[in-house]
């Protein structure tokens, strides 16, 4: 169930006992959290843990098997991949983000094209406008899809690994942009495999360990070395950044097998959460 909140309450996006099943098994179960307007929440978990499934449920793309989603304002959803049925230019792809405001009986106007061009410029992708979307690299496509989300004037953005295929420059560009959007009052949930993104930019973090275990709260509370080691089944340690700029989580790669004993992270019990 996907319900829309009316009014101007503080909560912009919430999940209540949300669950999803595939092929008779629970992929996610009893996920609950709430995000205020202007929150930036990082969604972390190993491959196959249900991050994309959760984002689709939050976006209303897939109906959850249990629980409900509550949101205030228009949702913009950016999946990992988009394969349009028709040959479209990058500019046309971004224009699709205006569809909700244009309506079925009206053609795009000057204002719509101005919003499209402004969105492309904001992600430094104006030079891609006339190129075929299908000809773009993975990172370039993600920039265009980000521009489409911006052009939609959404108040809640749900982004599935938006920087996964990007170089460091474009990763920094998008993360700074997301931080600016959050400061402007847009609520954002993004999945990522880079804990440092959450530590540097996020106000909230949601860690998905598996179908029945998750942790939610401020990054400094839920993203301990112990929790991240459990999450990725690899030793993780935090190191201080130069100049007093916080800390970054560093995975310890080794030729030797260094699997983590999940029992060591028993503090993160089923459905554990820390809210604020």
SSE layout:
Layout: E1 2-4, E2 11-22, E3 25-36, E4 40-44, H1 51-59, E5 66-71, E6 75-78, H2 90-95, H3 99-102, H4 110-122, H5 138-151, E7 156-160, H6 168-183, E8 187-191, H7 195-201, E9 204-210, E10 213-217, H8 219-222, H9 225-232, E11 236-240, E12 247-251
Parallel strand pairs: 1-5, 4-8, 4-9, 6-7, 7-8
Antiparallel strand pairs: 2-3, 2-5, 9-10, 11-12
Concise structural overview:
With about 280 residues, the protein is an alpha/beta fold. The protein has 9 helices and 12 strands.
Describe the structure.
This protein is α/β, with parallel strands linked by helices and 276 residues long. It is 29% helix and 27% strand. It contains nine helices and twelve strands. It has helices spanning 51-59, 90-95, 99-102, 110-122, 138-151, 168-183, 195-201, 219-222, 225-232; strands at 2-4, 11-22, 25-36, 40-44, 66-71, 75-78, 156-160, 187-191, 204-210, 213-217, 236-240, 247-251. It has a six-stranded mixed sheet with strand order 6-7-8-4-9-10, with helices on both faces. A four-stranded mixed sheet has the order 1-5-2-3, covered by helices on one side. The chain has a two-stranded antiparallel ribbon with strand order 11-12. A hairpin with a 6-residue loop joins strand 11 (236-240) and strand 12 (247-251).
């Amino acid at each position: 169930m996907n319900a829309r909140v009316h009014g101007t309450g503080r909560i912009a996006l919430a999940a209540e006992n949300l669950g999803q099943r595939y092929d008779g098994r629970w992929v996610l179960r009893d996920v609950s959290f709430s995000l205020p307007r202007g929150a930036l929440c990082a969604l972390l978990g190993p491959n196959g843990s249900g991050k994309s499934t959760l984002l689709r449920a939050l976006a209303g793309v897939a109906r959850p098997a249990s629980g409900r989603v509550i949101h205030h304002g228009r949702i913009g959803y950016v999946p990992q991949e988009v394969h349009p049925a028709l040959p479209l230019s990058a500019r046309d792809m971004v224009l699709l983000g205006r569809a909700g405001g244009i309506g079925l009986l009206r053609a795009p106007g000057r204002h719509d094209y101005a919003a499209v061009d402004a969105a492309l410029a904001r992600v430094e992708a104006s030079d891609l406008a006339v190129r075929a979307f299908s000809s773009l690299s993975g990172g370039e496509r993600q920039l265009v899809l980000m521009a489409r989300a911006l052009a939609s004037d959404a108040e809640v953005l749900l982004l599935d690994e938006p920087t996964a295929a990007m170089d460091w420059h474009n990763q920094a560009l998008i993360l700074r942009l997301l931080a600016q959007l959050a400061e402007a009052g847009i609520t954002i949930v993004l999945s990522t495999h880079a804990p440092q993104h959450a530590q540097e930019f996020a106000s909230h973090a949601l860690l998905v360990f598996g179908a029945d275990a998750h942790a939610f709260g401020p990054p400094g509370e839920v993203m301990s070395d112990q929790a991240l080691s459990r999450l990725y089944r690899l030793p993780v340690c935090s190191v201080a950044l130069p100049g007093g700029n916080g800390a970054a989580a560093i995975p310890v790669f080794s030729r030797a097998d260094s699997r983590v004993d999940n029992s060591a992270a028993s503090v993160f019990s089923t459905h554990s959460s820390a809210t604020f």
